[in-house]
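Weekend entry, working from home. Most of the wet-lab plans are on hold until the incubator is repaired, so I used the time to fold the two sequences that have been sitting in the queue since the last round of cloning. Logging both here for the record. First:
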Amino acid sequence: MKKKLDANRGKLTTAQIAQGMSAAAQNARRLAGDAVALLKAHRFPTAASLAILSIEESGKISILRSLSLATTVDEVSDAWKDYRSHTQKNVAWLLPQLVVAGARKLDDLRPLFEKDSDHPYVLDQIKQLGFYTDCLGRAHWSTPDSAIDESLAEMLVKVASLLAGKHEYTKIEVDLWVEHIGPVSKKEHALMKQALVNWYAAMQKMGLVPEGANEMEQFVRDGFPGSGAGRPDLTHKEEFDRREAILAPLVLARVGIDSFLFTYLDWTIQSPASHSIHSL
C-alpha cells in the first residue's frame, strides 16, 4: 500500500474541472453545515476548525478556474501546488472584514492577495489550535478550549457559510470562461475586466445566470451590485458596514463573482504587464 495518495498533477478537461468545482462547493457546504451544528452544541474549537476546512474547500474553485487556463507544464504544476496548499485556499476569509473597512469594488479586494500578507497563515494556525494541543513559547501548553472562544468560532462559521454558497458548475460555464478569459489572461487589467463582463453576458445568453442587467459590469465599474455601494448615508454607519459585510459575499455568490475575482486579483498582482489600475 502506498504511503501517500496518488494525486493527479496533470491537465484536466473542462468537464473534469467543472466536476471538481462542484465537488469542492458541495463539500464546502457540508463542512459549513457540520460547523454550524457544532457551534450550536457549543463545541467552539472544532466548529472553528471545520469552518476553516470549509473555507479551504471553497478556495479550490478559483484555483480550478486557473487550471482551466493553464497552457504550459509549469502553469499546470503551479495550479496543483496552489490546490493542495492550505494557505493558498483560505485567502478569501477576510472578505467581510475588507467590506467593513470600505472595500466595494474589484480592485479594493487586492489585500487578499498581497504576497507579504500573513492572514492566510493566521487562519491555518487557528485551524491547528482548534484541533490539537501544543507546547508554545516558553513552555505554554495550548489547548483547543483555551485557544478558541465562542466569538471567534461564530465569526469563522459565518464566513464559511457565506463563501460556501449554493452554486453548481457546468462544463459549458468553464468552456465560456476559457473562451472569454483565456485570450487575455495575465494581460492588461482593462482587457481582463472587459473579458469578465463579456463572460457574464455569455452566461446570461446560455441561461446560466439571471437575465437582466449585467451585474458583473456593475460590480467592475461601481461596486457590489444591489448592495448600496457608495451610499453609507442610507443607514447608520455601523449598521451599514454590518449589512454590507453580510450582503457582499452573498451578492458575489449570486453572480458567480466569488470564485473568479480571486483569480483576477492574483493575476493582476503577479503580472508585470501593467501595474496601473484602468477602468473600463
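Second, folded right after the first finished:
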Amino acid sequence: MNRLGLMTIATVSSMVAFSLAAVGAAEFTYTTWVVPAETTVVKGMAPYFKRVEEETGGEFKGKIFTAGQVLGQAATLNGIRDRVVDSGFALEGWAAKEMPYNALIADIQYVNISPIAASAASAETYFFKCPECRAEYDRYNVFAMGGHSIDVNYLMCTKELRSLDDIKALRIRAPLRIYRDLVNTFGATPVFTSFPEMVPALQTGQAHCTVGNTSWMNAYGLKDMMKSIVTTRFAGALPTHGLFVVNKAAWSGLSPKVKASLARHFPAVMVDSTLAYTGDGKAGIDAAVAAGVKKIDLGEPFAKKWDEFMADEPERIFKVAVANGVKLEAAKRIHADYVEIYKRWEAFVQSVNFDNAKITKELVDRVYSKVQF
C-alpha cells in the first residue's frame, strides 16, 4: 500500500463520523498536520478563512483541524479525495511515487535562496508549465489552489557540534530526498519520521538532529531541546503547492460569491505565510540563542563538502524523478522552466524590497488573474 493510503476502511469511516459530529453541516473543513501555533495556521489559513467569512457575510464558515487530529500527514490527500474533509494541506514531497511531477518541483530546493520567490515560482510553474502536475491532482478529484514556502533550512542538533567529524556519529531526521542525500554525504544516519513525530524523535534520541526551519524553535519548542545550529550553510527553501488542496465536489457546493472570495484572497495567504515564515525563522534563531543554543560554524571542510553536493543536485533530481516515473525530457524541461521563473521572481522581490503588497499584486497579475477555479 502506498504512503498516501495508510488508512484502513475502518479508520476512514471513523474519521468521517468524527468530522461530521465535530462540525456543522454548513462548515467548510480543512485539515493540516502542523500544530495550531505553526505559521501557516496563524498567519495563513486562519486569517484567510476569517476574511472570507466576513466578506461573505457569514455565508462561508471554515473549520480548521490541526496537528493531524483528523488526518495524518500521509493520509491527507486520500482523505480529501474521499471527502473526510473538504480541503487540507498535502505535502507533495511525501508522495513522490504517486505525484512525481509535483514532487519534482518541490525537490528543486538547491536554488531557493529566497523563500517568497520560490513560493511564487512554484505556483507559476504549476499552473503554466506543468500540465502533468495538474493532472496528478485531477486523479484524486481535487485541485490545488496554491501554497507557500518555509524559510531556508539548517542543521539543528540536540548535541553540541565542534567539527565535521562529529556529524558522522549522528542520527539526523531527514524526511525529504535532498535531506537524506545530504545526511548520507556527511556520513551520518538519516532517520525518517513524519512531521508530528519530529519532537518525540528528538526527545527520545531516535534522532539527534533535524534539517529544518528555525521558526520551529518557537513553534515546536526546539529551543529547549537543541544545543547547536550549524550556520555555515543552509538548504534552500521548500516550496509546497498543496497548502490549500480542495475536493472538487466540495468546491462545486459553494456559491459563486464564496468561490470568488476564496480565490481572490488566496494569493495574500501565499505571500503572508511565506514572509511570516522568514520573520519567524529569524525570531527562532534569536530565541534559541537566548535559550543557550549555540550557532556553530564548521568552517571550510563543511562548506566545501556542502557546495560540492549542491553542484551535483540537478543530476540527482533528474535521476530520482525518472525513478518515480517522470520522463527525463519532461524532468529537464520542468527544472529549466522553474529555475528561469524562480530567478525572475527573485529579481522582482529584491527590486521591491520584499514589499508584501507589491509582491501580492504581482502574483495576482502574473498568475492568479489568469487561473480559473
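Plan for Monday: verify the second prediction. Confidence is low (pLDDT under 50) at residues 1-22.
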